[in-house]
Design a protein that fits this description.
Mean pLDDT: 95
Strand content: 15-25%
Strand order of the largest sheet: 1-12-10-8-2-5-6-7
Distance between the termini: 77 Å
Helix content: 25-40%
Radius of gyration: 23 Å
Structural class: alpha/beta
Low-confidence stretches: none
Length: 446
């Protein structure tokens, strides 16, 4: 069949696409590095003729034009599945930004069962000879969005890497309504970034626990960068990748020959991920690379999938940990930071894996704007803080002062082990707090 003719019939301008949005609509904007730019710019111009437009997306890596067109959020409300820096500012300022609490793995199911998308605008690669467009860096949940959206608009970007995968990585021209050819912006990049001495200390303690043939999941930030660097220069071999987010650290390890996937129980020899974001080096590595396997997030993040992989090592960050072993990773009090993401799924899945371990890593302290040192190990979370991983689920907790396996430990054992992870200047006060909380035994060491 000649799909070029169908393509021409469905091709419209970005202005025409933006005109399809009407007041009261729920509009999906894409995900992470793959968000609309051309249609977004035209929609922003309609700020004075529209009202009550709800937009959904997450982990924004470029600022949407609608943010500048409506800085107070009176017309365009941004609803984020997981907040990056741009969204965090809008949410915490109370200017038309809100977070949607949901485990990332649930998103495809949520879309398919709620059917509440009026317009979906998603960047894709150019159409292939079979009539398919690729979602690029974001297999994630986008196919589910397309299935239920009343109007599906694809925004073609020639600079979007074509990411191969297992399933739900592409959509056919027969299943969409309109095509927009944008201005092909370069893909936004995350800074390559370095890491602190604290990150390196924590990384060394985690890497000690990783055996040959382990399967890795890494989060974002200095910690995974440090871990990737240490692994790349280590004697570890035959590592696998099964992760929510594909980051530059995996590329570094791949280039050093540390990742083969040869020991994976499923998806052998493939590096599996739901979405990717990083530097140009990462985008070039993933483009048309059959070693890398993009897949929907209800597969990558499902604990039942993760548990099938022996020696699964999950490494994630936290904002605070309390003396019960509860983990807060989404907010600090009422100040929103990120989102639930897949942390709980990976905590559960890694523990259920044969030989698997889940690590929650954080610096023991942080410094306020006034230069005051504060502990991230706390007796109780600040009011408004979200609990991301409940205390029955936590496994290994790590700071620069050590690592502690909380699984199966009583409350007094947890109190002692977690206090030992705190900065020495805060330990006496934490012991007093633990005594008041009734979780400190007289036999505990001080």
């Amino acid at each position: 069949m000649d799909y070029k003719k169908v393509y021409e019939e469905k091709l419209i301008s970005a202005k025409k696409a933006a005109e399809l949005v009407k007041s009261g609509d729920w509009v999906d904007y894409g995900w992470t590095a793959g968000t609309t730019t051309a249609v977004d710019a035209e929609l922003a111009k309609r700020v004075d003729e529209l009202e009550n437009i709800n937009l959904r997306g997450g982990v924004l890596m470029r600022k949407p034009a609608i943010f500048d067109a409506d800085p107070e959020g009176k017309v365009f409300t941004w609803n984020s599945w997981h907040a990056g820096g741009l969204e965090r500012k809008r949410i915490n300022a109370g200017k038309g930004g809100f977070y949607i609490p949901l485990r990332y793995s649930e998103m495809p199911k949520w879309y398919r069962e709620n059917n509440s998308v009026d317009v979906a605008i998603v960047p894709v690669t150019p159409m292939d000879k079979h009539g398919y467009f690729n979602f690029g860096l974001n297999a994630s949940h986008l196919h589910a969005v397309m299935e239920v959206a009343k109007i599906v608009i694809l925004e073609v970007n020639e600079n979007l890497p074509r990411c191969l995968g297992g399933y739900e990585t592409d959509i056919h021209i027969d299943d969409i309504d309109y095509i927009v050819e944008g201005d092909n912006p370069e893909m936004p990049e995350l800074p390559a970034g370095g890491w602190s001495d604290v990150d390196e200390k924590v990384a060394h303690m985690v890497v000690e626990e990783i055996p040959n043939g382990a399967c890795l999941q890494l989060g974002i930030g200095g910690m995974p960068n440090a871990i990737g660097s240490i692994i790349a220069d280590s004697d570890l071999k035959d590592l696998g990748v099964h992760t929510e987010m594909y980051v530059d650290a995996f590329v570094d390890m791949s280039m050093k020959g540390k990742i083969t996937g040869a020991k994976k129980n499923i998806d052998k020899y493939r590096q599996t991920y739901a979405f990717a974001a990083g530097t140009k080096k990462l985008y070039e590595f993933l483009d048309n690379n059959p070693e890398a396997m993009a897949a929907p997030v209800d597969y990558t993040n499902a604990s039942k999938t993760i548990s099938q992989l022996d020696n699964f090592i999950s490494i994630n960050n936290a904002v605070n940990i309390d003396l019960w072993g509860q983990v807060s990773s989404e907010s600090s009090g009422y100040k929103h930071i990120s989102g639930a993401g897949g942390q709980l799924d990976f905590v559960l899945g890694a523990y259920e894996s044969k030989g698997g371990k889940s690590f929650i890593c954080l610096a023991s302290t942080f410094e306020t704007k006034d230069g005051e040192l504060k502990s991230r190990i706390v007796p109780d979370f600040q009011t408004g803080s979200a609990i991301t991983a409940a205390r029955p689920n936590t496994h290994w907790l790590v700071t620069e002062y050590g690592k502690f396996n909380a699984k199966g430990k009583s409350t007094w054992e947890r109190a002692e082990g977690i206090i030992n992870l705190a900065h020495p200047d805060f330990r006496d006060k934490l012991i007093e707090d633990a005594e008041k909380m009734g979780i400190w035994r007289k036999s505990n060491k001080k």
